[in-house]
# Entry
Amino acid sequence: MERTGQFGRILKVSQRVGGLFLAGAAFAAVAWWLRRLSYEADPAIHGYLEIVGSVLALTFAANALVRFRGKYDRVALLVAHGFVVAGVLETISGLSFYSRVAGASSVPHAMPLEWMVVRTFLAALLLVALFVEHRLPQPRNPSRELLSTIAIVVAVMYLTGLFYALAAYIGAPLQVQFGVDSLVPRPWHLLPGALFFFAAVGYWQRLKETTTAFDCTLFLAAGLNALSHLMASQAVSFTDAPSAVSQLLRVSSYAIVLGGALLDNVRLFDQVRQMAASDPLTALANYRRFLDVLDVEMQRSQRTLRPFAVVFLDLDGLKKINDKHGHVVGSRALCRLAEILRSQCRSIDTAARYGGDEFAVILPETNSEAAAHLVQRIREAIAANAEEPLLSASIGVALYPKHGDTLEKLLATADRVLYAMKKRQRARARKRSSKEVAA
# Structure
């Protein structure tokens, strides 16, 4: 069985590698075909795409920093700094290229060396981010995390620049371009392309641990950049079809990763808002959210002239439960009551934890009869809950505007209703105890 499972894994890996090879070969064939098309783009488009790409990169960097502040995602922090550097340098490169094209009679064919440095730096930083996430311990102080990230970015940038400087020093043909009949007219594009490919593989493996929109688009962006450089390796000039497609792939990768960051930040803000309005123990609305909804319903009632009801509940004997069974069981008792309220409420109702052992349910456009019906359902659900210790609750109802036309009056009425209810229940309990003693 073990050999069979191992053979199955090897077969699956072989199929994936074969699929990637076929896809890469097909893409290379398309790039080779595009190279032979008689297509000439406006040279200024290259500069425009550089600037658009840099704006997208800087916008993504800002959103990635927001993600780091919300989730302390080290990959987001490293990638954000990398895109800041890439965005700034690509802006300078794009403006420089545009100025050269505007004043020249012919289009320059040599790829600017600083552009290759930036692209290789970004690909290397994506790989370094994966290594840092899995291999280096995370500092407890966020300021140290920021300093260490800046140090890593500077180190990667320095090493990338040093590599190209040494290559130029020894006479390596960094800006070589062969004729249209050669297999790879711009072979140096294969270096950042390979780095982006390995980064795409790493981020694809990372999706087994996290599947957020941010992480998915990082994988897609790395893959698109790998394809962009594979396409650029087939370009003979800045204005031919492979060069234009390469630029479009690169800018598209920036747009995709920006979209993923925006989607993730929207979800992050929703989570923060939900946490700010929720009770951490029961996940019901907290006191602040309860007051906000109550104020909204009062304004709605004043406009529509329709009443609404507020049901107030107090969990009986919580202190005794804590003393006898412990605080864990006491917290569980609060959660059990919260689950009952959630199950009995409508979607438009708002159930809240009003205080320590006090709960409330706001019932929009509800009269006294409908509120009494809900109270009866809650009582039956509490009685049907057989988990130990058994629960009981004091319940009272306040109607707006009958029992108070302001927030303060309504809450004061609620306190009086709950106090009277608990007083009656204590009297019944004493009467039962006296009867048992007499018997």
Observations:
- The chain has two domains: 14-276, 287-438.
